[in-house]
Amino acid sequence: MRPADQADVWWRNAIVYSLDVETFQDSNGDGIGDFRGLTSRIDHLARLGVTCLWLMPFYPTPNRDDGYDIADYYAVDPRLGTLGDFVEMMRTARSRGIRVIADLVVNHTSDQHPWFLESASSRDNPKRDWYVWRDEPPQDGPQGVIFPDQEDSLWRHDERTGAHYLHRFYRHQPDLNITNPEVRDEIARVMGFWMELGLSGFRVDAVPYLIETAGTHDGHLVEDPHAYLRALSSFMTRRKGDAIMLGEVNLPYEGLMPFFGDGGDELDLSFDFPGMQAMYLSLARQDAGPMRQALSARPSPPRDTRWATFVRNHDELTLDQLTASQRDEVFAAFGPEPEHQIFDRGLRRRLPSMLGGDQDRIRMVYSLLFSLPGTPVLYYGEEIGMVENLEVPGRWSVRTPMQWEPGAGGGFTTADQDGAERAMPARPYGPDHISVADQREDPQSLMTYIARLAALRRETPHFGWGSIEWLACDEPSVLAHHAVVDGDSVVAVHHLGDAPVEVTLPVAGLEPGTLLRDLLAEGPGMPEPVEVAHDRTITLTLGRYGACWLR
Ligand code: GLC
Ligand code: CA
C-alpha cells in the first residue's frame, strides 16, 4: 500500500477521538470547558497518537440535550469561547497533524432556534414549512419513540397555531423538514461555513431519521431519501475533496449498508453498532462466538468506506440490537443494578467499571478495538480508564469532566466543585486515583498502553487495509484474525476468558518455519517468537484475557 494512497484516504487509517469541549478543559475558572482549554490540551492528543478529533456540538444552545439542541448553526456557544478561539484551536490541531470533524445535528433544531420560533408563530410564516406541521398526528407518519422515559409521542401540540410538530427526539427538538429545498440549501451552507473554517468533515447525527420522509409529505415518499445523502456528500467533496461524513446509523448490517451508497457517495464511515453490541455479549459470556459470528457476517463496506469501531461513546451503551435474553445476560454481567440501566435497553456506564477495574481485561478490549478492521474511535477519558459517576443523572453519568491531575477540580477547572452538575466520580475512581498526570510517565499505565496501541496500529497497515480472515479455533473464548497486506501477515489473537489457555490456530497462508513475533510484547523480556508448524498451524499460550499481534 503506497503511503500516498494511505494519506489520501486518511480516514481508513485514522485514530479518532471524541470529546465535548464543555467537559474537556476549563481555561478561565468558570467551571465550563472551553476552546482555549482544548487548545492547551492538543499536545495530549498528539502524544496519544490521535489523528482526528470529533467535537460534539459546540454551538449556541439552551443545553437541554447537551448541545444536541442547536439554536444557531453559525456560532460558538459563548460559554465555550468565541469563533476566534475556535480558529486558534483548529490552527493548533492542524500544526500537530490532527484533523477536526464536528457533529452535524440537522435532523432537528432546538425549539429556541429563531427558525422554529418563526415557523411556530403563524401558519403563513415564510418559515412555516421548515418544520413538519400537522393538524393531527398522522397515521402514516414515522413510528417509534426514542426517549420513552420522557416522551410518549413523536408529535407535540403547539398552542401558537393549534397544530402539531414532529419531534423524533425530545419535544424541545422539532424536526427540520428536509424535503424543503430551502432547508437543504441552509444545511449545505452550514457545512460550507465550518469547512471554510477548517473542518475535515462531520459526524452526522441521527442519519436514518434525518433522511426519513414519512410524515413529512403526508407520508408519500417525495424522492429516494438516499439521494439527499448523496447530494450532501457531493456538495461536501466539491467544497473539500477529502472531507468525510461519519454517520450515526444504529441499525443491523443489512439496514446499515445502503447508507454507504455506492462506495463513499453517501457516508464514508459508519459506526459499527451491531459489532459493538456483539462484543459486549461476547465479553459477558467470555465466549468469542457472538463476535466471530457478527464480524464474519459483517458485510465489507464498499470501496473507500469503512466501519468506525468503538467501545463506548457519550450516549448510553445501547444494546437494542440484542435479543431480550441476550441483553439480560449483558445487564447481569455489567450493569445488574437499576441505576446502571437506562431506557430498558442500555447501560449508563463506562468500560472499566463494567469490567470491575480488571486491567488485563480492559487492555484486551482496547487491543481488540485497535486490531479490528475499521477505524477506531475513542471517547475522551478512555485512555486513562475513567469511569462514570452514577450520581450524575441520566446519560450525563458518562459525561463527567476529563481528569487531568489529582485534586478537587482534577486539573479540569479551578472552580469550586461542590455541587457541580457533573461531578467527577468519587474514589477510587476520581482524579486522585485516575488522571493523565499520574499515567503519562508511567510505562505500565493504561495511557501508555493505549498510546502504544495507537502507534502500532498506524505502523501496521494490515488492519486498516489488509484482507481479513477469521481463523477457526477450538477454544470458544478465543477470537483470532489474520490480516494480510501486500503479502505480509499479522495474526491478532484475543482471549476473552479469565483462565490461561493453550490454542492451536490454522494459518494456511503462512509458510512452515515462519517466525512470528508479538508486536504488543516488544522490548525487554519479550517472549520467544512463535513458529509456524509443518501443518501450517501455530500453537500459543495465552494468559487470562491475553492478547497478541503476531507479525
Ligand atoms: C444522537 C446523539 C444523542 C442525542 C440525539 C439527538 O443520538 O448521540 O446524544 O441525544 O442524537 O440529537
Ligand atoms: Ca470556561
TrEMBL record:
<protein>
    <submittedName>
        <fullName>Alpha-amylase</fullName>
    </submittedName>
</protein>
<dbReference type="Pfam" id="PF22157">
    <property type="entry name" value="SupH-like_C"/>
</dbReference>
<dbReference type="Pfam" id="PF00128">
    <property type="entry name" value="Alpha-amylase"/>
</dbReference>
<dbReference type="InterPro" id="IPR054049">
    <property type="entry name" value="SupH-like_C"/>
</dbReference>
<dbReference type="InterPro" id="IPR017853">
    <property type="entry name" value="GH"/>
</dbReference>
<dbReference type="InterPro" id="IPR013780">
    <property type="entry name" value="Glyco_hydro_b"/>
</dbReference>
<dbReference type="InterPro" id="IPR045857">
    <property type="entry name" value="O16G_dom_2"/>
</dbReference>
<dbReference type="GO" id="GO:0005975">
    <property type="term" value="P:carbohydrate metabolic process"/>
</dbReference>
<dbReference type="InterPro" id="IPR006047">
    <property type="entry name" value="GH13_cat_dom"/>
</dbReference>
<feature type="domain" description="Glycosyl hydrolase family 13 catalytic">
    <location>
        <begin position="18"/>
        <end position="422"/>
    </location>
</feature>
